[in-house]
Amino acid sequence: MPRARHSRCNTPLRVLHVAAEIYPWVKTGGLGDVVAALPAALAAHGADVRLCLPGFPALLDAAPAREVVRLATPFAIERVRIGLAQLPGQPPAYIVDQPSLYDRPGNPYTGPTGADWPDNHRRFALLSWVAAALAAGADPSWRPAIVHGHDWHAGLAPAYLRASGSAAASVFTVHNLAYQGFFPASVFGELGLPPEFFAMHGVEYFGGVSLLKAGLFYADRLTTVSPTYAAEIQTPAFGANLDGLLRARRAILRGILNGVDPKVWNPSSDPALPLAYGVDDAETGKAAAKAELQRRLGLARNEAAPLFGAITRLTPQKGMDLLLSAVPGLVERGAQLALLGSGDGGLEAGFAAAASAYPGRVAGIFGYDENLSRLIFAGADVVVVPSRFEPCGLTQLYALRYGALPLVRRTGGLADTVADATPDALGEGSATGFAFDEESAAGLLAAAGRALVLYGKQADWRRMIRRAMTRDFSWDAAARQYLALYRELVPVPA
Ligand code: ADP
Question: Ligand 1 centroid to 315 CA: how many Å?
């Protein structure tokens, strides 16, 4: 049954984005980049957008938060202070300033040892609860018509909206279905939801609680970050046990491709590069970056050696085990490899061993290093993204912009954004990279072999770089699609 929307939905449309990450202050992966770009792009299209973010120290340090309200919540003894901050270049942000939950070392989800915080359910339930409170008028001067949550951290927002009978509509975006915010059933009592919400048709998931499932079940619209992934997650192979629910809700599920923020990812203005470059002087700019990269990483100073790069979280998703197995074959064919990654200890050890086995040919840097990632995008000839699944993938989009041709597994957003260098695509000038299907080192090496043959034909290679760098993945197109979606929920008044 359609629920009444409150009358403030006249233009401009008020939209609250709820998320755990925002670049450059808090980022563990692509989510942070999207949250930094999409709300601002929507605001540029005339929406009245605000953010709702946890009070992580990096955010509190970035801008003063003026107190808007203090709220009694189910998650802390003391009232929780909600501040409004103006992060540079961003729409206004409500900051949930609760130091006992957010003022901690480590990344947003884990402590310094890499283990999840045991109270993550409460930390992120609070974030969603505050979003619902704002929809209920906690800030009388600004009340959203739409609450748009990102990933499991904001998955409970649609549930709290439903529980409170809110007039606000909800949109929930899945950036990665593999992260489900799963907790034992015993935490349910701490979430402040009506008891009947602990059900198969609710937040219950295989005997526990999934915050991701809450979002998938209660939101009015679902989106994910590429059309191919939107189709894939409705199948058992990619659905992470949620494919049944996603099939049932497919009428409200859309795939909207992420964009690239040209202010942040642009080789012609990137201070991390030794020499700025654009499409017309890519050759010189990339040669300078390659020389600098080889020097910094101890790779042989050889301009002609094809340099493969990888910038990645080291998790099974990213298929870096395939790349590791392919290292001897790549080196044999004359390639160099620069890998920047962090995560799985076994993979780090594996790439460290490969670097020792092939000095001057293979370099492994373990950790998170934004500037080095940019130098790799610029200095590499090929950037390898052999993911087992990939909701959208930003890495290959950044590689395209920096003229490093992506070598990808044909899945999810990788399939949607990289045009494989088939003879036809080469003939018509549409090729931008290399794609393979088989989930194996042999599959990767076969595509790498095709890349290396083309690398030997410099005129063809340069044409591909030009095509790659001029592909348009602007946020503009995505913003228009999200706005159209919002308007399904809150139509323009007649
Ligand atoms: P995911 O969000 O699954 O990690 P994406 O490709 O969507 O994958 O986004 C990854 C983002 O994180 C890119 O901006 C990539 O450059 C960056 N990144 C990943 N690992 C590292 C690292 N070790 N150092 C610097 N940047 C990294």
Answer: 12
Gap between the Cα atoms of 261 and 23, Å rounded:
11
Residues of the chain with pLDDT under 50: 1-9
CA 340 – ligand 1 centroid, Å: 10
Q: Are 272 and 285 in contact (CB under 8 A)?
A: no
Which residues make beta-bridge pairs with 210?
182
- In this prediction, residue 151 carries a pLDDT of 98
Give residue 106's pLDDT. 85
Which residue minimizes the CA distance to atom 15 of ligand 1? 395
Say how many Å lie between the CA of residue 173 and the centre of ligand 1.
19
| Cα 314 to Cα 6: distance, rounded to the nearest angstrom | 45
Residue range 127-140, pLDDT digits in tens: 999 999 999 999 99
Q: Please name each of the domains of the chain with its CATH number.
A: 7-259+475-489 (3.40.50.2000), 282-469 (3.40.50.2000)
pLDDT digits (tens, 9 = 90+) for 5-15: 444 445 699 99
Q: What is the CA radius of gyration of the chain?
A: 23
Give the per-residue pLDDT at 171: 98
Q: What is the pTM of this model?
A: 0.94
Q: Is 340 a pocket residue for ligand 1 (Cβ < 6 Å)?
A: yes
Q: Mutation test of ligand 1: which of 224, 395, 409, 417 has the most ligand atoms closer than 8 Å to its C-beta?
A: 395
